[in-house]
Amino acid sequence: MRHEISPLRQETGPESILQVGLGFMASKALLTAVELDLFSELAKGPRAGADLAGALGLHPRGAADFLDALVALGFLERSGGEYRNSPSADTFLDRGKDTYAGGVLEMANSRLYPFWGSLTEALRTGHPQNEHKHGGDVFDAIYRDEEGLERFLHGMTGLSMGKALVIAERFPWADYRTVLDVGGAVGCVPVAVARRHPHMSGGVFELPRVRPVFEKYVASFGLEDRLTFHGGDFFTDDLPGADVIVLGQILHGWGLQEKRLLLKKAYDALPDGGAVLVYDAIIDDDRRENTFGLLASLNMLIETRSGFEYTAADGHAWMAETGFRDSRIEPLTGGYSMLVGIK
């Protein structure tokens, strides 16, 4: 039997399919480089390949291929046999800089990467594939010790860093005086806002065990007098009042009932004219374009019991149901958007 090759296949070939299907190779190369702290090492200055491999404890057999793969991927540069960080890697992957965004990659390497190996099971069962799968609790596993807690919180900071800088720049903060980031980890967003706008004050509302990490982070920017910690559980406790309440990467972790409850709590804590600022990997209404948002929703399938990403239309509808008189959507970075509701 003769198989015909379709014109589409002749024209495009399988390269785009293979690029996605084998994309885990590039992903793991980057995650491993972060795990080895390669970029922080190169932030000290250019290094010859053998010297760098020795400092990282790499076997000679794979070291050159590993380093040159990172060159080809755009994370390193090589000249005259010496390696250096690319500009973006130097800014965002050097642990010594306050712009470090590698925390989320550390978390992806230690947790998400192995859990995604069970995506098929998640799709067939609808059940999480993380610690819940074996009767554990994800937060107990993450918060088991101070080191694990800091790693997770700084991972969330890495995920939020770029968005925080955009939010601090684009949102009309001149119209407000106080901001409260609910579930705000170490305070990445309030810190970015306070640094950009000297008139702003506020803080975060988080589980009490987060306080020491928050205070250490805020103190590193000298903002202790303007940003404070509020301990509590956002499902069982009322939220402190503020002119702007931020729900960043919070709604996506919960089911519809919890999403509506959190928006109602934010509404009740706001003054008239106050704003709620929600940011997640919000999916485009036609569900065709925001690839990251759709994959992030699958990550919620793997990581949570009922969480999911949602469309802008969904968000507008929930805002209206809650009582917000107006809402708008604005793009941020990397597949994220912010949904702003005005009371």
UniProtKB/TrEMBL annotation:
Every copy of the O-methyltransferase C-terminal domain together lies at 116-325
Annotated ranges, domain O-methyltransferase dimerisation: 22-94
For this UniProt record, give its keywords in alphabetical order, as a comma-separated list: Methyltransferase, S-adenosyl-L-methionine, Transferase
**Which Gene3D superfamilies does the record cross-reference, listed alphabetically?**
Vaccinia Virus protein VP39 (3.40.50.150), Winged helix-like DNA-binding domain superfamily/Winged helix DNA-binding domain (1.10.10.10)
Q: Spell out the protein name for this chain.
A: Methyltransferase
Per the UniProt record, the lineage of the source organism begins with: Bacteria, Bacillati, Actinomycetota, Actinomycetes, Kitasatosporales
Q: Which InterPro entries match?
A: COMT-like (IPR016461), COMT_C (IPR001077), COMT_dimerisation (IPR012967), SAM-dependent_MTases_sf (IPR029063), WH-like_DNA-bd_sf (IPR036388), WH_DNA-bd_sf (IPR036390)
Asked whether the keyword S-adenosyl-L-methionine is assigned, the reply is yes
Reading the lineage from the top rank, the first entry is: Bacteria
